[in-house]
């Protein structure tokens, strides 16, 4: 019996209408049913409206959007006023003011601490700069004194070196002619030095030969 009633219910759902007292009562199409074959290739034409009607529809739609936006803004402002006037809002403002005062005091203390550290750092830096400048000046003064001493020693050495003066130039020429100096020399494989251009090796004994210094 249950199987028959179930089959009957399914048959009623699958048909598009049922009989009720000699009248056709249309029922909803089942969700799983496909599109009707007569509507598969049918494209509904888009309604063509006049320009003035389109403009009127757009005007009404814009008015609706503006009105709804104004209402939302109004309700939002009213909700803010109610929230600010409540006891919870006042408590919140009081806590925010206390927190702001605490942060300002903490900021002031931190600024004082940073200012003290900055002054100390600048003081140490000024002392180091002063010491560096003094050391540079002392070093420069010492270099100047050393240069003066070296210059005086050089001048004294130059003054002590004998120069040929105008009054004794003839005597110097005679001495140079009487004592000619030959700067030519030769060195053999054993390291002996033979000075002069016409010096004969065989004429100099081995014990009197000048040996080249290895240093």
TrEMBL record:
InterPro entries, alphabetized: Ribosomal_mS26
Pfam families, alphabetized: MRP-S26
Transit peptide among keywords: yes
Coarse class of the protein's main subcellular location: mitochondrion
Tree of life domain: Eukaryota
UniProt entry keywords in alphabetical sequence: Coiled coil, Mitochondrion, Ribonucleoprotein, Ribosomal protein, Transit peptide
Location in the cell: Mitochondrion
GO cellular component, one term: mitochondrial small ribosomal subunit
Coiled coil stretches, renumbered: 81-120
Similarity-based family: Belongs to the mitochondrion-specific ribosomal protein mS26 family.
PANTHER family hit by this protein: 28S RIBOSOMAL PROTEIN S26, MITOCHONDRIAL (PTHR21035), SMALL RIBOSOMAL SUBUNIT PROTEIN MS26 (PTHR21035:SF2)
Descriptive protein name: Small ribosomal subunit protein mS26
Organism of origin: Daphnia atkinsoni
Gene: EOG090X0FQ9
